[in-house]
């Protein structure tokens, strides 16, 4: 049996959002970016960010306590800790600050978790409706791109090069997975299909990756539009958990229709273990789907395999990937 929790661990959970809010506020207010060029005293930093000095100092001190910042014991100047300089300044290539901003937006819906559990569906929060705000779309799509880059690389590393295949990457976002696969597979071509606001962002990331000749981007709605014809691979990465079972089944049937006989669907994402109580990340992801996307849910791998079989796929196999909570399910269109 797992060890019982201690008082301190339960307290840590209860106070967890205090920590998160220091990170969110310091990122949103521009603290890490303001310190990107070097240390600043509180008054200079507050003036640069147009903040009153005293509350700003409280935030800086808490961020220092949380090791996001360091304070010079002699001058009192604040500087970014090395990890913050690398991961939280917007000019750094490894920056996850966009993703931190997305998590900060999700704080509202997560604050209504109890209500969502009581109602059985998400409580409406306008500022987390993707279609409504281009700045949110950009943070969500480009933030996810950086956040998922390593996972996408890990997935590409586990798959054998299938040669000159044609892929449709449905709900492909910034094209993170198309980019990783087409870098690994020299003869593959991929078409990213996503909503209108996402298309220009994906075109930019694909061009930046030097793959515009083999990865194209098309506007499309996976509820309505065909995914293509005679394709070798349809990729559904981190998509089906946003949808109800019925909509997921419909999307899988569309994938089947778009494939050539023998073609494969790749369903990738975070899955629950059969106990449904682990991995912890996916149990929380499952709640995130509840508070953010009406009808969204996480699956166990056998549940997803069943859904894929119901859509008409054969020989469904479940593969592990380097990301511990992620799985890849591969299904084949019967000949
Ligand atoms: C969680 S992201 C996954 C992105 C990418 N596949 C990945 O794994 O990084 C879900 C994607 O589905 C897209 N999406 C949502 N509804 C859609 C729809 N009706 N038609 C096409 N794409 C949609 C979103 O714009 C977003 O890019």
Protein architecture, described:
The protein is an alpha/beta fold and 335 residues long. It has two domains: 7-87, Orthogonal Bundle (Arc Repressor Mutant, subunit A); 111-332, 3-Layer(aba) Sandwich (Rossmann fold), CATH 3.40.50.150. Helix content is 47%, strand content 16%. The chain is built from 14 helices and nine strands. The strands form two sheets. Strands 5-4-3-6-7-9-8 form a seven-stranded mixed β-sheet, with helices on both faces. The chain has a two-stranded antiparallel sheet with strand order 1-2. α2 (16-29) packs across α7 and α4 crosses α5 (53-65). The radius of gyration is 22 Å and the shape is globular. The model has no long low-confidence stretch (mean pLDDT 95). The structure holds S-adenosylmethionine. S-adenosylmethionine binds at residues 141, 144, 148, 171-173, 176-177, 194-195, 198, 220-223, 237-239. S-adenosylmethionine (SAM) is lined by residues 141, 144, 148, 171-173, 176-177, 194-195, 198, 220-223, 237-239.
């Amino acid at each position: 049996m797992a060890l019982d929790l201690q008082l301190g661990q339960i307290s840590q959970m209860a106070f967890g959002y205090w920590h998160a809010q220091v990170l969110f506020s310091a990122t949103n207010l521009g603290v890490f970016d303001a310190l990107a060029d070097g240390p600043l005293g509180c008054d200079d930093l507050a003036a640069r960010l147009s903040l009153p000095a005293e509350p700003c100092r409280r935030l800086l001190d808490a961020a220092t306590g949380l090791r996001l910042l360091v304070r010079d014991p002699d001058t009192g100047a604040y500087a970014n800790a090395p990890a913050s300089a690398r991961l939280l300044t917007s000019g750094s290539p490894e920056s996850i600050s966009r993703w931190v901003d997305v998590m900060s937006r999700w704080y509202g819906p997560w604050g209504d978790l109890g209500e969502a559990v009581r109602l059985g569906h998400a409580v409406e929060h306008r500022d987390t409706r993707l279609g409504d705000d281009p700045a949110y779309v950009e943070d969500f799509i480009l933030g996810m791109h950086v956040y998922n880059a390593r996972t996408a690389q890990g997935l590409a590393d586990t798959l054998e090069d299938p040669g000159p295949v044609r892929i449709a990457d449905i709900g492909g976002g910034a094209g993170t997975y198309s980019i990783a696969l087409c870098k690994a597979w020299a003869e593959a071509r991929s078409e990213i299909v996503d909503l209108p606001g996402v298309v220009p962002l994906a075109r930019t990331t694909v061009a930046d990756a030097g793959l515009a000749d083999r990865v194209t981007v098309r506007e499309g709605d996976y509820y309505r539009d065909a995914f293509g014809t005679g394709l070798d691979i349809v990729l559904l990465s981190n998509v089906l958990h946003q949808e109800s079972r019925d909509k997921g089944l419909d999307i899988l049937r569309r994938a089947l229709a778009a494939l050539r006989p023998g073609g494969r669907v790749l369903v990738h994402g975070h899955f629950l273990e059969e106990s449904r109580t682990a991995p912890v990340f996916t149990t929380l992801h499952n709640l995130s789907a509840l508070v953010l996307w009406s009808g969204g849910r996480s699956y166990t791998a056998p549940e997803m395999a069943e859904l894929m079989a119901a859509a008409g796929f054969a020989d469904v196999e479940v593969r592990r990937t380097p990301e511990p909570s992620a799985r890849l399910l591969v299904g084949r269109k019967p000949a």
